[in-house]
């Protein structure tokens, strides 16, 4: 593998000036993935953005990295995060993976427009920095390796919004833009998102080595994952089974969290499923407005495979695909051994079911203000969801207004068509709350789990339209609002129902 050819910034190019921002803390880069060898990735330089500029940066993400507040004033940082330079110690590489897309084996995929720059030592542990949109790689297939400003704004904002909501997710440190034209349905402009995560390993990485008959590499990848990301699995009698159970449980928690917020991922292909149970690859995702369990947020998903109400079972399906890819690591000398190995892997995946049910009920209870557990709680939650669905009541607002309904139920009632049915349900809920302490305490708990602000499509669209006109202020403003999702926003419009113009917004895979 050749070493990166991108110009390396050294001290002669960035002589400190009197007004220079405080330097980044001596950043230490490691490249643990690079130790796996060439079957796992290709080293190559980024194809950067010409004349890049910042569109936005995330103070919260930078703080997690331990960077100073003015880090983005460094001209070096802009060039590095736009793909035009590397800091000493970085080894840019694109990884190979495969996957099932829309339920069908899609063969080899890989980082077609993502480039891992290396791992940074941070107070929270090593973090991989990845540029998305910095040029074609050997895995780009027919793609151009670019990402457009529109979808990059959506990924940037969604990553940070989800983190602020407490949902496990890859983070977004920065968004750089350029006038470089990129052709999609129309001509758009290029952008690069800097994503951050402990690891970007996907189910598809394991599927790749299983399906291409590389059992040694599969073993190596599992060992790598266990050593660096799941050390507690090392002691298990069968680490493959332990890893599968771990990711099954984390995925169950993740999907329950998504469901509780009305979040639809949109493209739950196995190559978009994180081995760490993180929300990964924000494409045609959406936070639901009016509640419809059958809601399909991805315009390209004609059959609704990834509809809201199917996310839990699709995740389970994906875990089975992962289980199958781990089979070559299991004993299979005889038919009986094959059968026993299969059963152990299936049992690990099966753990998902119970964990999802428990996590989901736990989320609904919290959203209803309940701390104690009673037998009728699932039915209470289901009945509220049914009422919401039959009125297509706004998902986020229904829960937020319910949080204040002990005080005044009128704003909640305004969202529902069948108000008698809602009143009957409210009476049941109030009765159930008798066991839950003072109304003020219930309300405070509910307001802390039922957000006022989520990244509705029309909010993202407003920021995108302003950015296209050269005004990036709205991206940064929205980021700030989304970073405190449980506070009432200063501008009521940020929490309000979508305006009429937003009814027909369509989001597809084109990005
Ligand atoms: P996605 O649907 O975004 O998860 O992408 C599926 C696969 O297509 C991944 O391997 C991506 O890296 C690749 N891909 C998507 N868009 C592009 C693009 N514009 N250029 C190169 N590869 C792409
Ligand atoms: Mg993807």
Q: What brief labels describe this structure?
A:
single chain, disordered N terminus, alpha+beta, 511 residues, 15 helices, two-stranded antiparallel ribbon, binds adenosine monophosphate, 13% strand, 7-stranded antiparallel β-sheet, binds magnesium ion
Explain this structure:
Mean pLDDT is 94; it is low at 1-18. The chain has helices spanning 59-65, 75-81, 149-165, 203-211, 215-229, 239-261, 311-326, 335-368, 377-391, 395-403, 410-413, 419-433, 439-447, 457-468, 473-482; strands at residues 29-30, 41-43, 53-57, 93-95, 98-101, 104-108, 114-120, 127-132, 147-148, 171-183, 187-197, 263-264, 286-287. The radius of gyration is 24 Å and the shape is globular. It contains 15 helices and 13 strands. Strand 5 (98-101) and strand 6 form a beta hairpin. The protein starts with 28 loop residues before the first strand and ends in a 29-residue tail after the last helix. With 511 residues, the protein is α+β, with helices and mostly antiparallel strands. Magnesium ion (MG) binds at residues 271-272, 281.
Task: Provide the structure class.
Answer: alpha+beta
- How far apart the termini lie comes to 30 Å
Main β-sheet: number of strands, strand sense, barrel status? 7 strands, antiparallel
Which segments are poorly predicted (pLDDT under 50) over 5 or more consecutive residues?
1-18
* Coarse morphology: globular
| Series of secondary-structure elements, N-terminal to C-terminal | EEEHHEEEEEEHEEHHHEEHHHHHHHHH
Rg calc: 24 Å
Q: Determine the fraction of residues in helical runs and give it as a percent range.
A: 25-40%
Strand content: 5-15%
Strand element count: 13
Number of DSSP helices? 15
Mean pLDDT: 94
